[in-house]
Amino acid sequence: MEKRRHKRVAFGTEAVVRSGDVSISGTVSNLSMKGMLVATKDSLPGNNILEIEIVLSGSSTKLAIEVKGKLIRQTEEGIAVEFTEMDLDSFMHLKNVVAYNSEDADAVEQEYYKSIDAIDF
């Protein structure tokens, strides 16, 4: 039985995750309004606030979703991150990416409205 409250979508793009002085990069395996899984062989130190950049391809300028988060899980395959803070532009980009890649865009829209109260802007 699925316990997740947020719709996850496959989304293969580069992400850079920083924890203090340590910076790692990897590929986003899945993404939701509240977090992501990054495929990487690198590891991060524990309890720091993470600064995350999810790179979106743009035709003329660099476009990225920038969020803060916390490390939820770390395995040999990658890291799971929960988002805790983001600016409004990043939130809107995230919503659009998840909705566009979802089979149920209406469910993502509902999550969007619920997430507004849960994330610090």
Give the biggest sheet. Answer: 6 strands, antiparallel, barrel
Beta-strand residue percentage = 35-45%
Class derived from helix and strand content: alpha+beta
Portion of residues within helices: 10-25%
CATH architecture assignment name: Beta Barrel
Strand order of the largest sheet: 2-3-4-7-6-5
Q: Which homologous superfamily in CATH is the superfamily? A: predicted glycosyltransferase like domains
Global outline: globular
Low-confidence runs of at least 5 consecutive residues? none
Measured on Cα atoms, how large is the radius of gyration? Answer: 14 Å
Main CATH class: Mainly Beta
Question: What's the total number of strands?
Answer: 7
Question: What's the order of the H and E elements?
Answer: EEEEEEEHH
Instruction: Summarize model confidence as the mean pLDDT.
Output: 83
Distance between the termini: 32 Å
Number of domains: 1
In DSSP terms (H or I, runs of 4 or more residues), the helix count works out at 2
Gist?
This protein has a single domain (9-116), classed as predicted glycosyltransferase like domains (Thrombin, subunit H), CATH 2.40.10.220.
